[in-house]
Design goal:
This is Pentatricopeptide repeat. With 336 residues, the chain is mainly α. The protein has 17 helices and no strands.
Length: 336
């Protein structure tokens, strides 16, 4: 609650926050490693596993799971794509439960379980995912917090909080403390619904966990900004954003989008332009996202004067415009 109280206390000064926004650069690193010639890629391994799983050759699946890790081609979201909600689902899952304990011990086995659990969650098979966790516990295959994350993510997104809390208790029963990522799933879901009361309860639990060793991260702040915006408290959202920067955390593009959306929705058109301009010039991609999104929202609300100002900035800065914005710019500004 102390965290939330700080934000509320600062909210009344938020109209002037734009004057003190950090000049820190929001750069993004996008590594694109190139596979060595002659080596199989993760995509190729996924294709081979897909074919083996579809044909029922689960010994081949086991061998491929082993060899791909040896070749540094780690599992992806497509690794178990052959497992679908069809008539063969049950038998395929049982075969996977049979061969996974036979994969190489350590990272290979643990990551195979983790990837399969994520696949089951995508299919909505939470009970089966929990059965796999039980298999890991019995086999002592290295249960960790991350194994539970896909389950908590799925349940909280569907607002199945009672089930999610039972999963948390299961984590505790295996001597796994509830980590920040787990709390963030609950927090994000409550904030998405604008449920400030429940979000406050989550914050209180975070502060109490392990005597306050859990500190908010980028996702935590993003959820809080979203919650403030969803509940119509744009001043609080700006206060939270400033606190995030003061804590030295990188700001997600989505966090800016929450604020821009609420400013426009609340009719603060001039302030929305002031907000995006306060960040302009630090990150080209962020500029394209912020200015482009704001221009689109302003045009939709027929705030053409402000939209033209934003588009002029995009043009001067050489920023990419989406087709609809480019058409509006060329039609309404080049001829004027």
């Amino acid at each position: 609650m102390a965290l939330l109280r700080r934000f509320v206390k600062e909210a009344h000064n938020s109209r002037f926050l734009l004057q003190s926004i950090s000049r820190r650069s929001f750069s993004t690193v996008n590594p694109n490693p190139i596979a060595s010639p002659g080596r199989r890629t993760s995509v190729e391994f996924d294709t081979l596993i897909y074919e083996a799983g579809n044909s029922g050759d689960f010994e081949a699946v086991r061998r491929l799971l082993n060899s791909r890790v040896v070749n540094a081609c780690f599992n992806t979201t497509a690794t178990f794509k052959f497992l679908t909600n069809t008539d063969s689902y049950s038998s395929s899952l049982e075969d996977l439960r049979r061969i996974l304990p036979q994969t190489d011990a350590g990272y290979t086995r643990k990551h195979a379980y983790e990837t399969l659990i994520a696949r089951l969650c995508k299919l909505g098979r939470i009970d089966d995912a929990l059965n796999l966790i039980n298999d890991m516990a019995i086999g002592k295959f290295g249960l960790s917090n991350s194994i539970f994350h896909p389950i908590l993510n799925t349940l909280t997104k569907k607002n199945k909080f009672e089930e999610a809390r039972r999963v948390v208790e299961l984590m505790r029963s295996h001597a796994l403390p509830v980590d920040l990522t787990s709390y963030n799933y609950f927090l994000t879901s409550h904030c998405y619904d604008g449920d400030v009361a429940e979000a406050s309860k989550v914050l209180r639990k975070m502060e109490e966990e392990e005597e306050g060793v859990i500190s908010p991260d980028t996702r935590t702040y993003d959820a809080l900004v979203l919650g403030a915006c969803k509940s119509g408290k744009v001043e609080a959202a700006l206060a939270i954003l400033r606190r995030m920067e003061e804590d030295g955390l990188p700001v997600l593009y989505a966090t800016h989008a929450h604020v821009i959306g609420e400013l426009v929705e609340s009719g603060y058109y001039a302030l929305s332009v002031e907000f995006v301009m306060a960040y302009a010039g630090k990150d080209k991609k962020l500029d394209e996202e912020n200015l482009g999104s704001l221009a689109s929202k302003l045009i939709k609300r027929k705030r053409f004067k402000e939209a033209k100002l934003v588009l002029k900035e995009m043009s001067v800065r050489g920023l990419r415009m989406k087709n609809a914005l480019r058409e509006f710019h060329d039609t309404n500004m080049l001829k004027s």
